[in-house]
Amino acid sequence: MTAPSWRATVLTLFPEMFPGPLGHSLAGRALETGRWALEAVNIRDFAQDRHRTVDDTPFGGGAGMVLRPDVVDAAIGAVADAHGASPRPLVCLTPRGRPFSQADARRFATEGSGLILLCGRYEGIDQRVIEARGAEEISIGDYVLSGGELAAMVLLDAVVRLLPGVMGAAESATEESFSTNLLEYPHYTRPAEWQGRRVPDVLLSGHHAAIAAWRQAEAERITRERRPDLWAAHRSPHCVAQAAP
Ligand code: 9D3
Fold first, then answer.
1. CB atoms within 10 A of CB 36
2. Can you name the residues that pair with 38 across neighbouring β-strands?
3. Which of 2, 55, 77, 153 lies at 20 to 30 Å from 118 by C-alpha?
């Protein structure tokens, strides 16, 4: 079998966390069938001393420890592709990063031969190596995690399902046609009555136009109630807004 054309390398102090949940469901199946490859590399293997030190105290004082630039740079250098190969973007998972979006997922799935993901632990990574290596800093949201590993898994899950041949063709087509900046309408299946709760009558009517109208109205109501930001984007056609998931 030929080598996967899309490869992810994760630089981490906890390589044993991978593939973790990425070994299951859609991404896991795609790994098994060679649609992508995943490699977890231990940053500690690039420490320069016999104690295998990777971090140090922050200049200027303050709590916690910072990953050393020399160690992180050596790790990046060891996994960066040989000259001539198409270079992979370097993404640094950090709470200070730009928020990850579906547009980023599409870009990473379509624009390169994979990704190098750098996971922080401790208080952070020395800013000089982030700049020197041109890393793109990305966060997955405004809450505090204990490290970048789970964030890297979230990002990879979102990207891998968009790789060619990972999702079924029918599923991808549905996704394309419903990227309208609205949250989804609610779903129901049998039984038609459960614990005294009935499925909305229109869904049992067989009246396809009425069903489509009900779903559209519900999608709009739920978006307005839960996500005023998406609702505003939906209502501004001049704005090239991010599609809702
Ligand atoms: C007290 C200052 N903290 C910043 C908010 C320090 C800090 C907290 C958590 C430094 C690193 C971390 C570990 N988190 C990540 O590495 C991380 C993360 C996150 O915490 N939230 C959302 N996205 C991400 S991506 C990487």
1. 23
2. 8
3. 2
Residues 38 and 139 in one domain: yes
Measured in angstroms, how far is the CA atom of residue 119 from the centroid of ligand 1? 10
Q: Do residue 77 and residue 194 come from a single domain?
A: no
Q: Which residue puts its alpha carbon closest to atom 10 of ligand 1?
A: 123
The reply to whether ligand 1 has any atom less than 6 angstroms from the CB of 145 is yes
Q: Examine the domain organization and report whether 151 and 55 are in the same domain.
A: yes
Query: What is the pLDDT at residue 175?
Result: 73
In this prediction, residue 237 has a pLDDT band, given cuts at 50, 70 and 90, of low
Please tell me if the CB atom of residue 137 comes closer than 6 angstroms to any atom of ligand 1: no
